[in-house]
Amino acid sequence: MPMGITRNGMLIRSIDTVSKGDVIVLQWEDTSLLEPNGNLCVPIAFENENLVVFNKPCGMPVHPSIKHQGDTLGNYFAFLYPDLCFRPVNRLDRDTSGLCLVAKNAHSANRLQGNAHKTYYAVVEGDTPEYGTIDAPIARERESIILRCVREDGQSAVTHYKKLKYANDFSLEEIRLETGRTHQIRVHFSHIGFPLAGDDMYGGGTQFIARQALHCGKLTFAEPVTNEEITVTAELPQDMLSLIE
User: Rounded to an integer, what distance in angstroms lies between the CA atom of residue 35 and that of residue 113?
Assistant: First the structure.
């Protein structure tokens, strides 16, 4: 069957007229399936027929890009589920570790989008207050595609945090976001003078850890079919634990 739109078996354009009784068929090639890579290994924290929650390691992108064509979470998903489209519900930076929720079908993706509540854990430099809220708008640095900054004309961004432990001049923070701006946690803690350990992009030192010390450690969401509340957790990785032990 030819690719595209056909009317009674003949290719037509989207602007062509049709008549009552015509048989219209839309045929396309599914380019959403990614190249599978079974050499990767990502632990699964939870799974059922509608979704899967991965515990993504640091250093692994979620999506393929120009520099990462076959070493992403999407490529591993394609290996595990060769007939399914990759539909990540929450996305993590390459060097942020932790829980990443992926829907196995379009219905689950629609139900879960915007309804997964995430708890992050970060190790920051210095001794922060016991708890606090950072309410500071975030904008793109004018001369950079990647960098973000706090600026009055930026988008509203609110971060709530609670200090769980202080040791070795580092604080372990439990973090909840009201908004989901790019690099929000990293920018906000740098803004108040406590950059994330290892985050040299925003002022953190790399003497003790080679990546930003940020981990998505808890996800709570309603199962898209049964509506049952599910909470999934993932322990801090060893490189972050070593900073505060």
Answer: 24
Predicted TM-score (pTM) above 0.70: yes
Taking Cα atoms as reference points, which of 61, 52, 15, 14 lies closest to residue 34? 61
d(CA 118, CA 84): 25
> Catalytic site residues?
93
* Rounded distance between C-alpha atoms, residue 98 and residue 100, angstroms: 7
The three-class DSSP label of residue 24 is strand
∠ Cα 177 209 167 (to 5°): 75
Query: Is there a contact between 144 and 201 (Cβ–Cβ < 8 Å)?
Result: no
Check residues 241 and 1 and name the one with the higher pLDDT: 241
Rounded to whole angstroms, the Cα distance separating 211 from 217 reads 17
Under 8 Å between Cβ of 108 and 116: no
Average pLDDT over the chain reads 93
pLDDT in tens, 114-141: 999 999 999 999 999 999 999 999 999 9
The DSSP code sequence of 211-244 is S--EEEEEEEEE-TTT--EEEEE-PPPHHHHHHH
